[in-house]
Design goal:
By secondary structure, the chain is of the alpha/beta class. It has two domains: about 20-65; about 65-160, Rossmann fold (3-Layer(aba) Sandwich). It contains six helices and four strands. A four-stranded parallel beta sheet has the order 2-1-3-4, with helices on both faces. Strand 1, helix 3 and strand 2 (about 90-95) form a beta-alpha-beta unit. Helix 1 crosses helix 2 and helix 4 (about 120-130) runs parallel beside helix 5 (about 145-155). The longest helix has 17 residues, at about 30-45.
């Protein structure tokens, strides 16, 4: 499919260009509840509350009690603020990306002095939050790819609060909106060497 090329979006009005049998995908009661509660929160608070409040309302309506935060060490201040806000209502556990101190050399990874010789450890972040029995996990600024590993290994459902984009202040969609940045998208990036 190439929905990004569609100008009609009949699926939005119930007239899809491709008829599917999607109901069986939501036969699992928990997945059906995730879908239903997400729709409730969207309908009740559309454009009225920020992503943090939306995440908390979703967790409330799902009946989640234990929330995990998998965060990038570069966003430790934000993780602290988020943890404090969530802790008013939920049991909060968090794990930073450098947990375990894995050396990049042990994995034959590129090492650069400006980012250090310890690799992020998203599988361990997920394992620890799994062991602590989280109902719901929040990703806070994990790197591209590291976030993918975390999602794959998390037993609990995951939402993303912050998508890391160091260049654009963690607002990656700005590259799609800004006419000055858009022409540069897709070009092979210049590697940082110093």
């Amino acid at each position: 499919m190439k929905c990004h090329l569609c100008n009609e979006h009949g699926c939005y009005t119930g007239n899809p260009c491709r008829i599917t049998d999607s109901k069986p995908l939501y036969e699992d009661p928990f997945e059906k509840k995730l879908l239903k509660v997400a729709a409730e929160v969207e309908a009740l608070y559309y454009g009225e509350i920020c992503r943090v409040d939306e995440t908390m309302e979703f967790a409330r309506r799902m009946g989640f009690k234990k929330i995990g935060i998998a965060f990038c060490l570069g966003l430790r201040k934000e993780a602290g603020i988020l943890g404090k806000v969530l802790s008013k209502e939920f049991e909060v556990h968090s794990v930073c990306c450098k947990i375990g101190g894995l050396k990049k050399a042990d994995f034959e990874m590129s090492e650069r002095e400006w980012i250090g010789n310890v690799t992020c450890n998203p599988c361990e972040q997920a394992r620890i939050l799994n062991e602590e029995g989280m109902d719901f996990n929040i990703v806070l600024g994990l790197c591209v790819g590291h976030d993918s590993l975390f999602y794959r290994h998390s037993n609990a459902p995951v939402t993303t609060l912050v998508v890391k984009d160091r260049k654009l202040g963690h607002n990656p969609v700005a590259a799609l909106y800004c006419p000055y940045l858009r022409p540069e998208l897709g070009k092979t990036p210049r590697e940082k060497t110093e």
